[in-house]
Amino acid sequence: MNYDYIIVGAGTAGCVLANRLSADRDVSVLLIEAGGKDDYFWINIPVGYLFTIDNPRTDWCFRTEPVAGLGGRSIQYARGKVLGGCSSINAMIYMRGQRSDYDHWADLGNRGWGWDDVLPLFKASEDYQHGAGEFHGADGELRVEERRVNWEILDAWRDAAAQCGIPKIDEFNRGDNFGNAYFQMNQRRGVRWSGSRAFLRPVQHRANLTVMTETLVTGIGLEDGPAGRRATGVTLRTARDDELTRHARRGVILAAGAIGSPQILQLSGIGSRAALARIGVPIRHELAGVGRNLQDHLQIRSVYKVQNTRTLNRRANSLLGKIGMGLEYLLFRTGPLTMPPSQLGAFAKSDPGQPNANIEWHVQPLSLDKFGDPLHPFDAITPSVCNLRPTSRGFVEARSADPAAAPVIQTNYLSTTEDEAVAVAGLKFTRRIMAAPALERFQCEEWKPGPALIRDDELLQAARELGTTIFHPVGTCKMGDDDQAVVSDRLAVHGVDGLWVIDASIMPTITSGNTNAPTVMIAERGARFVQADARSAAG
Q: Among 113, 154, 259, 355, which is least packed by CB within 10 angstroms?
């Protein structure tokens, strides 16, 4: 019942932390996951996200509160409910963000978080298909590979983007992502390479590492002493409703993500006085920023019907097509079953006044109304555009004192004039690309939002109707030293010894692109902070 470290959450960050901290055989580690084991058939097959998202076996199936900026809609908000967390159900895209993201963190006063500081951490965990180099590592656990299927329409879209001033580049992840390229993915020979497969499975045999699944953390134990307030362990509820306590000699690490970590803090009496009063939880330690500063990427999914080519819509809606795809994957681990939701990306400025690329496209050789729905019966592509640096801010709050109750998630998308302007500019830029000469032979026909919408107010309304999450929530336990900061730049919770938050919630501002790779980096850095703190305490 006693461990040196207790890690709450076995998602991406938790798996990295368990690997790194248990490497010291003199340190005992308990890793706790509220979801189950990652042994579901569809997790390993890349296209299985279609069957793991909105599946209560693998997804918490959260929904947002009604969002005024989306016309009052409440939207699906997938979060991984399984070992590996979101890396077991996500798009598998390996995207670090841009130099400016991390240099901005450093400019905010977060020491050691600039691009030049974090690049070695990205490389340390990476196993890059093309080997080590200036920007990549090859000795790490996280496999990064190229796509394993090609589509004629995506090649043409690359040409069209180049004709509109977005040049072709070899890859992203070198610090400046301006350009268009095929995404690189966390796969190994056509199999999803989640945080669990990369970091946890290889070390689960360690005698000093204990993993508990289907176990809900109901609170963090806090003790007040002469040296101040300290985290002493956690209370748990198992799948059989057993109530347990586990003690931590050195500390507790929250790695439950941007939704889970602030909720656990609040249920433990750590947060804003007003938020805790609403759920009847006595305040133990006031931190006004817990659950605030929620940021996410809103994607606006245009759909274009195309001719004279085949997209996944036609292949997947045909019995012969399904059989062919299945055989190709079974025999060669190639083809559409290896696809992430998006294969092709592009970064550009929404207007010339931007300092660097602030919008991104995820281009898909398919179309559907939403994940989980059937593909449309016609050939189509979806060039989805998002604002990389949204200024809208939302929040996460525990809904009640019941730890099993889904939290309140309010994203507040499109709640600022800046975000509205970028949404409209993104839709206009998408139209320019789709009208470029390289795509003429495909007779592209705008289906959504529809060519009749011309005025800015019409396009903004379309953005409100089409906009949805790319599942990149961050920022709800942000690092810094202002009155809204929850953790220091060493990821220790302000005012509580022996308690860290190490996951995507600590980002002060969202990174430019998919957030899984930055979460791995944050966990790499956080593990080193925890180990250094232990050495310092030992004298």
A: 355
Q: What is the pLDDT of residues 290-302, one digit of tens each?
A: 999 999 999 999 9
Other Cβ atoms within 10 Å of 420 Cβ, number: 20
CA 508/CA 258 separation, integer angstroms: 12
Spatial neighbors of 273 by CB under 8 A, at least 6 apart, are 283, 286
Per domain, the residue ranges of the chain are 1-67+76-113+185-293+400-406+473-539, 148-182+298-387+412-472
Between CA 119 and CA 134 the distance in angstroms is 10
- 449 preceded by a cis bond (ω within 30 of 0): yes
Got the DSSP string for 29-82? EEEE-SSB-S--HHHHSGGGHHHHTT-TTTB--EEPPPBGGGTTB--EE--B-B
CATH C-level class of 1-67+76-113+185-293+400-406+473-539: alpha beta
Which residue in the list 136, 297, 362, 472 is annotated as catalytic? Answer: 472
State pLDDT tens for residues 474-496: 999 999 999 999 999 999 999 99
What is residue 460's three-state secondary structure?
helix
Whether 247 sits among the annotated catalytic residues: the reply is no
Taking a C-beta distance cutoff of 8 angstroms, is the pair 444, 365 a contact?
no
Chain segment 33-53, per-residue pLDDT in tens:
999 999 999 999 999 998 999
* DSSP state letter for 267: H
Helices and strands: H and E segment counts in the chain: 14, 25
Non-local CB neighbours of 323 within 8 Å, separated by 6+ positions: none
According to CATH, the topology of domain 148-182+298-387+412-472 is Cholesterol Oxidase; domain 2 (3.30.410)
pLDDT (tens digit per residue) in 413-431: 999 999 999 999 999 999 9
Bridge partners of residue 347, in order along the sequence:
179, 360
Cβ proximity of 478 and 231 under 8 Å: no
Residue found by looking up tokens 């090649």 in the block: 155
Closest C-alpha among 394, 256, 484 to residue 268: 256
